[in-house]
Model the fold of this input.
Amino acid sequence: MIELKKYILLLTALILIASQNLHSQWAILKSDADSLIKLGSEYIYDMKFDKASESFRKVIKDYPDNPAGYFLDAMVEWWKIAIFRNSREYDNIFLNKIEKVLNVCDKVLDTNQLDLGALFFKGGALGYRGRFYVIRNSWFKAASDGYNAFEILLKCLQAAPNNHDIMLGTGIYNYFAEALPEQYPAIKPLLLFAPKGDKKLALLQLEASAKYARYANVEAKVVLLQIYHEFERDTYKALQLAEELHKSYPNNPFFHRYLGRAYVNVWDIQKWDSTWRKILVNYMDKKPGYDDITAREALYYIGTALMQKGDYENALKYFYKCDEASRTLDKDGASGFMIATNLKIGKIYDLQGKRKYAIMQYNKILSWKDFQNSHYEAQTYLNKPYGQR
Done:
């Protein structure tokens, strides 16, 4: 069931993500509102939600028949949902605001069915609502919104295929239309009638959007960061983007986590340690978005850094805390963090000569699901203690 959900999520992401940030494809309104839109978008990325809402309410007041302000106001709620991952407080507010966007768009399209602005915002609203349904496991609703958003996107691309802001959408589609079937063959039948992708072209489009787009440049960098980190495995390009985004938006926990992961991937132990310690401090200071899940990740990576430095006693303290957090967070069985943490605890016990306790850890690993060859590793170290050649 989990694998099926993963495939549905990936398919929906492929269709939906190309409609993200569609407000950013052209100079939307007159200069006053255009400036407020760009300023409000900056506030969203830096988690200054009240200031963002204030900017967008001014746009709505001055341009009540234009969907731009309504759409961006809904995006404030979307980011709250994304940041406050354990809350359902913003769900209905978000859905009501999306419905308002759709109503305003339909009113414009009733007069002119080819109005590019209304098409873009309708596609964006459907795309984000579809993404919401994905994270809430409403798969039929997600698929329905996804396909409707995709059809609208095609119309927009035909109207303005060379716009650098639109290249965000074309680049995302071109990349994932090729990349996802490669990594997850099970979704190929679901994409049988979809246009083929082109990863090389996609990266050129996304790089151009990141460099030249009027509004979508930040969103293009976000997408490139995810692609280079998770698909291309280009650790240094991912690090460059993560550093740039975190520097620009230091209050954004999404960028902060990617920066920490990037330092781990390039094996910069000092920066990885200091970055995750700062993330943990932000969690203890109760900064928005630095939640229990983020704290667990920080505990794991700090413990791993200490283990690499040979400070086993302090590493164990962080791993014990990480394991404790996992026992609270993992409602559906041991997570990857819990498995990896306990495997490392077993390894440290072996390095300390505490073989009896190490064996207990490895047997525990074998009783859980296999995660990234955890069963093979545990069985290997049961046969021969970790650290012995």
The longest helix spans residues 91-111. The CA atoms of residues 119 and 152 lie 6 Å apart. The chain has two domains: 2-212, 291-383. The two ends are 40 Å apart (CA to CA).
